[in-house]
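Two proteins, back to back. First:
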Amino acid sequence: MKEKYLRLIAMLQEEHKYLKGKEIAKRLGISDRSVRNYVKDLNENYLIDSKILTNKNKGYILSGAVEDIKVSEHFEFEERMFFIVKFLLDAHDWITYEEIAESLYFSNQTIRLDVIKIQGMIENQYQHLRIESVIFKGVRLIGSEIEKRLLLESLSKITTLNKTNFIDSLAYHFKNWIERDSLESLMAFFQNKSANLQIPENSETTLSILSYLIISMRRISQDHICDYSFDSLDLVEIESTKEFEVAKSIMYDYGSQLRIIIPDVEIIYFSFYLISQRLMFSAKDDHMFTIPQELSNGVKRSLKVLDQMYSMNLSEDEQLYSGLLMHLARDMYPLMFNFYIENSFITTIKKEFIQGYYMAISFANDLKKSIYLQLPENEIGYIAIHFSSFLERYKTKNVSIVVLLGRHQSVGYLLKKELERRYSNVSIKTVISQTSDSDNISKFDLIISFGSIAISQSNVIVMNGMPTEEDYRKIDRFMRKMNYVFGIKIDYFTRKSFQDKEKLLLELLSGTGTPEMFESILERENFSTTDISDGIAIPHPLLTSKLEKTKIAVAIQDKPIYWGSQFVDLIIMIIPGKNDQKITSRVMEEIYNIIKDPELLIEVKKANSLEEFNSTIENREMRT
């Protein structure tokens, strides 16, 4: 059953009232038309004792309790795909299209097309796996044993609505592999053994782990053992982890019931799998870590690269460095062997920690180049939390102020002390002569001068002696503006309608005069799509541009465009200038301030011109 079908049902169950189609479409990231199709399909093919009622003016409401859903034999491609792969794993060698088609009650042609689709999916996600097809012989799945299991496990993630359906689903999909009674005892057995692990307590995670166990036991019983393709375990003292203890206990005891001898390598792989399902790690979780020198050097190098990009001392922050090392040391093997890293908070992280996620992408990009470790989106989400924590510590000095003393040196020093008392997030420099270095002075966030100054900028406050209350009000207004509105104006705006994401990107790049950044923009999207929430995407390149200053381009779509994981109607593209990443990071924070202000978000989406968009941002009420 499709995940979005379940989310739609859960949404209607929670509301207990009519929901407009547009609201459902926005939450699910689909079109209004898709909502109508989903409702029709659910009513006709899934719901038994309940029904989704439709009212032209009010929207949709769920009538009755969802106690059960219909299960049709292999009626969707996703479900056929699971059974096709299951047949391929169970076959001793070749299996014909006719044999699969006869078992699934579909035509040979349908199965052939399905196999082609499956092959395409495998090529994109699994490095050491492929489907081989030979005329008069049939097809077979060849390659890495662990990737075969992970492929089938990923296809078995069919979320259901309650515990009964959860058991029924597993029993249905793994029929002939495990009896329903054995399945129930296995689940209870696992839940008891894994009580001390930081694994999410939800049916999807439990289903995934049980699926992996069922598949592994089936393959081990057929003498298909995972490859021991790593030289040593010096990356992590895996045997000292809680996951290893649990994996060993479960596999030995369960294997004993099935009269199966469990090789040590299978316990190690199951340990990796359990690690991949954990939420977060802390130093006290395990007895000992062995950090590989390659990882240590790679993390330090990548942080130094970010030092230059963001003008921050990330590599000197011991908490950030050690936190990243510990986290990646734990996850390296699951990542190397293509284990799916569970992260149910990725959408929230991308929205709430925009700056941290932006830095994490840059970090992951450099780490991939330096030590050839590729981090998937969910893992980047966890890395973003470490960077966000650093930014919170760094924020204590995130507004730079220069005080030009002139003849009022003593008053200037008193002002410096007062500003440090009033604001915890300022870094203040005093300069006796304003002509000493005008270029460097102009780069400060706020310039306070005692007497006239040759620099003509909006961030200059001139005082004529002892600071007055009006002077302090000006500084306070500026500080609030620094925190809550765009400090950089939008450079390009369009409200043209686009149906193609790449054409929209090219339009914005052309508008900022940076079409050469197109490949870098796409590379960034391949790491993790830049849609966040509330119909917003913030595309940006991995590389800085040839521009001196950062540029921002905006596109507003009357009809939302699909971006990667949802539909968006507000696209804010950021093109970092040379040596201007600090400004780019601040823009990310300012975008977050738009997102968290629902009224402002509605207003900016109404803008019809560049001037109107900038004006809406600038004129909103200041908030402290």
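And the second protein:
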Amino acid sequence: MRLSECLNSSDIETLRKIADAYSFDCSKSSKNALMQEIITHFQNRSFIAEALDGLKEAPYREAVSQLMLDTRQEFSREEVLATVRRTIQPKKEGHDQKWMNRLLAEGWLFRLNAKGGRQCYFIPDDLRRTIRDCLSQSLKQRVSVTEQTPIVYRDENLALVRDTGVFLHYLERHEVRITKDGTILKRQQQEIFSLLEIKEETLGKVSWRFGFGRRFHDYPDRFALLYDYCYARELIAETAEGALVLGSKAAAWQASAERERAADLFRYWRLLYRRPIPQLRRTVNLIASAARDEWVYAASISELIRPYVQDYYYEKAPAVMERRIYNMLVHLGLLAHGQLADGSPVLKVTAIGRELLLQEETLAEEPEAQAAEAVRTPLILQPNFDLLVPIQGAERIAWELEEVTELIRVDTLRVHRITKSSIARCLDNGWTAETILDFLREETADMVPGNVERMIRQWESEFKRVQLHRTVLVTCQDASIAADLKAMPEIAPSLHADICDTQFLIAERGARPLQEILRRMGYQADLQ
């Protein structure tokens, strides 16, 4: 939506507030005059640059910058407020709305009706482009640009997309076996890696690897992303018989355009890595804007994004920047990583990177929750059944942890362990294998090792060899009444077994709904 459309769809009071904010000299009673004055100024790049420079409060300027660097077409009220809270951090209750009103009064945002009549917040496309250019120039003043050409650089282009296709083609032509914990046999891993454009080595013994994908602890970084993407998009499937096969959506993916695959891979990576790096969207936007056209020293980029990248467990922030952001953007083909003659590393956004990172509004966005800060730090479930829990996150799920696990130790993390006895305790308290796994999937960002999942199901089946149930016997005068009762949606979930045409058993929890139904129908409803 362009600025002229936003202004035309706004009421005259909104236009008056914008004109007053900038002391425009025009008729305040004419909507047409107000529109012309605002368009004349807002389409003047010098005016926008001066307006941005005039934002003296650094947190407020940061809020404007983050909104402009965001790629969403429209925002909900909660999403705008989340940005305000994250950047400005209002000290008093209700002040977030005050800052939001300022964004509207100064014309950075427009509150309009979207499809379906709901209210949304828009940033005009032409205004966003102008502000992005201004911000890009401002960012370039904060980084060090080199005039030298790197003696060597890595630009992987769409190699990751092509290697994904190679992997799927290999599965189509070979029988691939996986171990009990769900990993491809080492020999076949080596065969697959040898076919890929970008070579990696199988993992040896490592001290820790978690947080950056479902199979991150099993495979090297690049292939772990490739594998997790294929699994999440149902391009591959792990069978109960220990085979890795093509998934139901592999054919459709292989028929799609290469650019669409690249865009989808990038969106998946950003969503996956957003949990360990909550400010990943902001960080990537900064890198894209600062290194858009020229080679920039990596050290200066690191300094620029340092406030938004934190340590992740045992991995320090510089390592997170280098391995989890720069290297992965290179693997995705969005960033080129070079080295000058003196050995200094430099970065530059590639052509594909400019398309996906800076013009992302042309691509479908993944649905997100209200804001990145709302994302909880996930727990880490290791293949050895240890569950690593941050100290600050334990209280929220203390009851569930006590039910599902045994506490092993507490130091910088709480270390819990899933055991056969802890699962037996869960089952005694009404849990099922599925509800246990649902809890673990939710709290670990769907990163439950395959061997853990299988063992929990196996323990459940062992415990269920003999079961005792409290049930209620229902006796009806004739078979038709019994059939009608059993077919009722309130009763069907509690149905245990048929005794005969006129008698059946239901779980205790179904007794009360059945009594209420019988009373409404005029039948005897007391338990005998």
